[in-house]
Structure formats: structure tokens, C-alpha cells
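Weekly puzzle thread! Below is a chain. First person to post its structure in C-alpha cell form gets bragging rights.
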Amino acid sequence: MSLFSKKTEDSKKTTPIEPIEKKAEFVATSKVKDDFKSNIKPGSLIIKPLISEKAMILSEKNAYVFVINPKANKSEAKKEIEKIYNVDIVKININKYRRKSKSFRGLESSKKILKKAIVTVKNGQKIEIFNK
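Winning reply:
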């Protein structure tokens, strides 16, 4: 008995492939983007509160620092922080740190993009994470 058998004529027969007709359909799409809608999920906007020496000094002046999603903007960050912590935000500043390249033992890599939001709340209101 051999490992490879001879192919019969029936197995060589193939059915012809029918061409698929593509119909051109015009679909109207709007190129105008909504200002308040983005691709970011509501829960994934704020990554974490940033706790450092400078952030603790700012917390005494009613300013708190958060690390946010790099694709987020001021209005989205403001709405999310107000919703989570139930505070009224007076002012918000955004700092964006660009990607930096670094090398370790001859291998090139890059750091992640970091975006910080410095949030100032009304006098008399506090965010409890920083005041422990």
C-alpha cells in the first residue's frame, strides 16, 4: 500500500466560481464631528489620581492632579471629574507630555504619552483621595 494514492478524475473536477456583482450604492455620511461625542468610553477617561510631592502642595490650594486618557480634552475631563467626585470645577489645566525615546543595553524603546489634568475646585470643596 502506498502513502500517496492516485487522484481520480472526479476529484479534479471543480465548479466554476461565479463573479460577484458589486452594486454601487451611495450612502450619505456627514463629515461634521460632534464636539461632545468621542470614541472614549465614559469610565476610561480618568486613569488615576497623581500623588506626588507637588500634587500634595497643590491640594492645599484646592488644586488636584489626575492622569487622564491622552485622547481626552478639557470639557470631557471636567464632566467626568465632576460626575465621579461630586465637586464644582472652577478651572482645569491640561499638560501633555510627548513620547520620548530611550535606550537600554542597545535596545531602543519609547515611553508612553502622558496627559495630566490639574483641576481647581471651589473653595470649601475637597476631593477625599488627596486629603487622607
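Puzzle host: Confirmed. Bonus trivia for everyone else. The chain is about 15% helix and 25% strand.
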